[in-house]
Protein: DNA-binding protein
Organism: Roseovarius faecimaris
Amino acid sequence: MANANLNICVLEKRLLSQTEAAAYTGLPIKYFKTTCPVQPLEIRLGTKSWDKRDLDRWIDTMKEGAEMATQEAILGKL
């Protein structure tokens, strides 16, 4: 039996199209368009790309806000 080597290299994209960015955040495209404050980059003329790191920061900020709201609600009940 012959041996075969298969070398696979998967590079994860950092910049996403609007459709990919919406899917990455788990939001429907219409909601993403109206809600996401992250500004896209225009590296190539006419092509907008969203940086995953910027999207992650936005999501983290929303989580921090939710945590603070929860903490304030808990303190308000005391």
